[in-house]
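pinning this so it doesn't scroll away 📌
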Amino acid sequence: MNSRERQFLKVMRKLDAAGQEQVVAFAEFLRSRQKPEAPQEKVIEKPNLLPAREGESVVGAIKRLRESYSMLDAKEMLNDTSSLMSRHVMGGIEAETVIIELEVMFERHYQRYCGVPEDD
């Protein structure tokens, strides 16, 4: 809370109920006269796609893709990422296959970030 807000609260507390209602009515009147703020456009960041390293591991690919798509929230992708990692570790799916699926998954999340509707 800034100093103006504190000052306003002090004044409001000293007013009786009728005075407080008048202050609120006047504040709402002032707010109604303001021009609405233009909605700010979302700035879409472009990925900095890093090349895959020779013999790259799945963990290495995840790190590379997180760096390439730094604008994406890793927490939102945790379920998909861990599912693919489990398929590799527990299911025996080859690293190359999982890495390709990770790249597709990151691209899909990036398209969602950009507002592109998903195909059903």
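📌 and the second one:
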Amino acid sequence: MANNFRMIAKTLYGFESILAKELLDLGAMEIKEGNRMVSFVGDKGFMYKANLCLRTAIKILKPYESFRANSEEELYDNIKKLPWEKFLDVKGSLAIDSAVHSDIFTHSQYVALKAKDAIVDRFREKFGERPDVDLDFPDLRINIHIEKNFCNVSFDSSGDSLHKRGYRSATNIAPINEVLAAGMLLMSGWDGQCDFLDPMCGSGTIPIEAAMIASNIPPNLNRKEFAFEKWSDWDEDLYEKIEESALKKVRDFHFKIKGYDKAPSAVMKAKENVKNANLSDFIEIQQKSFFESEKENEGYLHMLFNPPYGERLEIDIEEFYGRIGDTLKQNYPGTHAWFIATNFDAIKSVGLRASRKIKLYNGPLEGRLLKYVLYEGSKKKSKQKD
């Protein structure tokens, strides 16, 4: 227990409770939900496991120091007096990310610059030389978060955002973030116990995340590196044990996962990404227009997709979303269809009543994750299954 410490998992708006459940299932302690974050307690091995296995986390931060700062000088002095040489070699490199919600500090990049100055000035005074700044592959990535006059300094154990799983070498014009895809799947109740379809799959992110959830494959298995691998206490043997243990929990999947897209270029990219994720045995990608498709399986079908929303792809919104509603109603009985929409006029054009509407963001755009239940036969009979 003495080796346990508090950590923070950052996430997207609306996924806090999903992430908290993921942490609970992994074995985290003292879980507390916040705004776009969940704090928890675990040891170094658990920090490795969180980075490897959490589907809805963007970063895992290890808090280092907190203090109040009412001016730039106070911020500089407080950061400069911390013993950075314990964590970073003078010939090493650092990068600083910052987020500010404050009337005193109004520019996050300026805060990052001031913090960098404080750290390198300490090294220069102590050793006569200073570490470099490397924004891409630093030895130590530092995170600074300021709320009003309260400053939290943390070590970023993840490095690149955890949505960068490592399988996506090809993207289409409007790719969906992997963490958003995984969160929507978990929110929709997807558990791999039936057939799955993404009828507008683009570069294949949603089917890939669906297959990894169904088979309980760690989402970040394909990543090239995590930031903690450059830390002075990096324990490769421990990480390998954690990875081995996670792989033992991979389970069989006995249903079909399909992705359709009408664009040949998207289909090619999706197939390449599926192959990169080593999931070609689980996922079938087909060139097909959703509007010319119909349900192919006998039993219940789970559908989740991210239709175009007119920001980057030119479409007639009302007509397009009207056709989505018609296709679902006429061709997909016995289906629970979920999709994210960021155009609220588009939602009205679907012509079906959503049984659930959940507020989410797709990048900077506010949207709704919508659920439509398409009944097979009479509504009364289907309610017994529901």
